[in-house]
Structure formats: structure tokens, C-alpha cells
Amino acid sequence: MATTKAQAPGVAPRRWGALFFIGLAQLMIILDGTVVNIALPSIQRDLAISDGDRQWIITAYTLAFGGLLLLGGRIADYTGRKRAFLIALVGFTAASALGGAATGFEMLLVARALQGGFGALLGPSALSLLTVMFTGPKERAKAFGIWGGIAAAGGTFGLLAGGALTDYLDWRWCLYVNIPIALVAVIGGYAILTESRREGRARFDVPGVLLVTGGLVAIVYATGRAESDGWDSATVVGLLAAGAVLLAAFALVESRVAEPLLPPRVIADRTRGAAYLAVGLAGGAMFAAFLFMTYYLQVAKGYSPIRTGVAFLPMTLAVLVSAGGLATRLLPRAAPRALIVPGMLLGAAGMLWMLTLDAGTSYAAGVLVAQLLFGLGAGLIMPVAIDYATHGVDQGDSGVASAGVNTAQQIGSSIGIALLNTIATGATADYLASHGGGPGTARQAVVEGFGTASAWAAGILFAGAVVVAVLMNTPRPRQQAGTEHGDKAGTGEPLLARP
């Protein structure tokens, strides 16, 4: 059986200091998923990007990230998690510099895809380092509470940073800002992190990479094309069918190859599978909410980029309260679905509140309420789902399990943004066609489009809550008496009461 060269569970030296630098890398990944959202109207004007293509500035990043994450997890497992972490940081920074210097839509698209590719190595190497360093239930709960808080609140912080950078400098600094963050993370990570890797000869599932990436690209591209071509067009239907066939072939290949990209044993567990689903749905809804609220505030309400960023602060506070004050305290004591399901229902309520908005709705009665509901929900979902998505796996699979979490989030974001942006754009066009032109009508058309898409997002989150409630049957954790960390002897796996 594969083993991992690592410190004994729960006693990795300087692990809390290491968490700071790993957290910086995670913050940078999350920032780049949202920091350009606030700047997107400015980027769209500067580079002459159409409404139908604007989502690709976000999707190019999340799709490359999600499509290559599983490969990144395997590379981290076999070549060394610390080494992969440092190399990915350097590559991510170089891609950010390229994007900041972009002179056209195509160059920016390539840079964003490269960011996603290096992020696909950075994300799982960072999370797998965390997984092998923190194994005792109490410390693990604290560490994953911090990690989940970064994952949930980092997106909102990115919106604030994006607003400030766009207003006071230029949208290009939304990409250049990665350089100093990465520099600190590289220096600190090199000095403090301990190397760990899976023993044995590295074998990579190249057919699996090609199949899963091709399938996901086909589905996301088809969803984006539906806005202009229609859902019943031959191109869209053909791409969706091709994507489904490629993903089905991927599942078949993974069950037969010696070293699968995503071992079936990792996702066969009902709790882990439900956790991946929760992360994916929450990620899609979260990024869609950022996009909708950004355009609502800047287009319908006339907010500046910095004012828009400040307007998102209540969501950040709600996430911090929920993730740090509630989820972290309840995680060692409560069954995971007792936190995730209410979180998804709160998120659905926040999306439904978007239906009450119009161009004249005040901030306090409109966006603020939606943000607080969605932020509280996201804070309950992310720390718990991320913890249980990597819970109980063999340390040799920690990289690919960690990649699975990030894959779910990024693919959920890619498909969610593409689908919901298509629905919003179509509803806006329908409203304009039936109500004529004029500045007031145009603003209300934007609101109508985002309201329609938000209703779809709420329905998806509600359906996801039902599925998670049925699938995630893991009961409340209990610690084993007589052990320092409540771990199984020699395994570092917290005991769970099983049915």
C-alpha cells in the first residue's frame, strides 16, 4: 500500500505558521476568481468585449482550474506537495503579470487560462499539505474553519480589492496584486513547510485528463453559446451531447486504469460525494451572486467600483460570523448535513430575495438582505463540506481528494456562471424586446434578467439541499476516549459513530 513521507499525525512542527502561508495561497486563488468581477465592466469597455463573451473572463480561469485540478492533485502527491506548491506559486504569478499587461481580449483570455492551470496545481498541493498536517479532530476543525472562512470570505474580499484597485489605479492591478502576495507565500513556504509525497513510481492518467477536460469544456462552451444560438440549436445540442459522452468515457476509464486520475474509492463514500456536490452548487451560486450584484449595483444603481466593493462588506462579515463563529464551533459536534443543509437553504433564500429588487430599491431593503442571507449560508456550507470532502482518505490520496474539492467548486462555478449568465442575458433581451428602449427600461431589463437567473439559482440550491440531506448520512462525530487527539491509533483519522 502506498505510504506518505510526512510527520506523524497531529504533530507536524510549526503547522500553525505553515497554515498562514498556505492560507495566503488559497486567498490568492479565491481572489482571482472574483477580483476581476468588480473590474469586469471596465475591462469590457476597455477591450470591447460583448455581453455574451464577458463571462469568459471568469470562466476561462475557473474552467482551466477545474479541468486540470485532478491532474494537479496527482502531481502534488507524487512529486512532493511542498515542491508543487512553490512551483505553482511562481507560475501563477507569471500568468498574472501577463494578464495585467493584456492588450486585447484574446491575450487576457490566455492569461486567465494559464492562471487557472497553475491554480490547478496550487490548490490541491496547498489543501493536501493542510490535510496531512492537521489530523486531530479539534485542531482539524480549527484549521478547516480558517480555511473555509478564507474560501468563503476571500471572494467578497476580492470584490472589495477589485473595486479599490479599479477606481484608484487601473483594472490591470487586479492581476498585478498577486505578485506581492505570492512573493510572501513563496518565501514563507520555502522556509517553513515540510515536504511530503506519495511513494512509488509516478503514473499519470493522461487519457483521463483529456476526457474530463474535453467534456467539461464542451459543456461550459455549449452553455455559453446558448445565449446567442438558442438551447435547441444543433451546435449547442451537439456540444452538450459530446460533453456527456466524454464524461461517461472518463468514468469508464477511471474504473479500469491502474492509477486513475480520480479513484472511484475517493468519491464512492456517500458523505464525500455529498460534500463535493454541496461545494460545487455553493460555488456556482456564489460566483453567480457576485456577478449579478456587481452589475446590478454598477449598471442599475450607478455605483462606482470602490463603492460596489464596499457594498459587499456585509456579506464578508456574515461569512466570517457563520464560518468562524458557528461552523467551527459546531463542526466537531454536529452531523455535517445538520450544517450544510440549512446553509444551502439560507443561500437559496438569499437568491430568491433578488426577485424583490428593481432599479429603485434601496440598498438596505434589497442587496443587503440578499447578502446577509447568502453570506450566512455560505459560511455554514464551505468549512464543513471541505472538511468532510477530504475526511478519512488515505494520506497517499490526500492530493487527489483535495483536488476533488477544488474541482467541484471550480466546475460548479464555471457551469453555474455560464448557465445563469445565459439565462440572465436572455431574460434581459426579452424584456427589452417587449418594453422598448430608453435608459430606465435598460436598467430595469438588467434587473429582470438577474432576477430570473437568481430564481433558477435558488431552485438549484434547494434541490441540492434535498439531495445532500438524503445522501450525507454521517452522524455526529464522537472522540475516542483516552487518546490525546481523538484519533485512531496510528492513522490520524478521527473516529465517527457509524450506523
Explained architecture:
75% of the residues lie in helices and 0% in strands. The protein has 2 domains: 394 residues, Growth Hormone, Chain: A (Up-down Bundle), CATH 1.20.1250.20; 53 residues. The protein is globular and about 65 Å long. By secondary structure, the chain is mainly α. The protein contains 17 helices and no strands.
Offer a concise description of the structure.
75% of the residues lie in helices and 0% in strands.
CATH fold-level topology of the largest domain: Growth Hormone, Chain: A
In angstroms, what separates the terminal alpha carbons? 28 Å
Spatial extent as radius of gyration:
22 Å
How would you describe the shape?
A: globular
- Count of DSSP E strands? 0
Mean pLDDT: 77
Order of helices and strands: HHHHHHHHHHHHHHHHH
Question: What amount of the residues lies in strands?
Answer: under 5%
Weakly predicted, low-confidence segments: 1-11, 480-499
Tell me the domain tally. 2
Based on helices, strands and strand pairing, what is the structural class?
mainly alpha
Just give the CATH class of the largest domain: Mainly Alpha
User: Could you give a short account of the major beta sheet?
Assistant: none
Helix tally equals 17
Helix content: over 70%
Q: In CATH terms, what is the architecture of the largest domain? A: Up-down Bundle
CATH superfamily of the largest domain: MFS general substrate transporter like domains
Subcellular location: Cell membrane
Main location: membrane
Domain Major facilitator superfamily (MFS) profile: 18-476
Protein name: MFS transporter
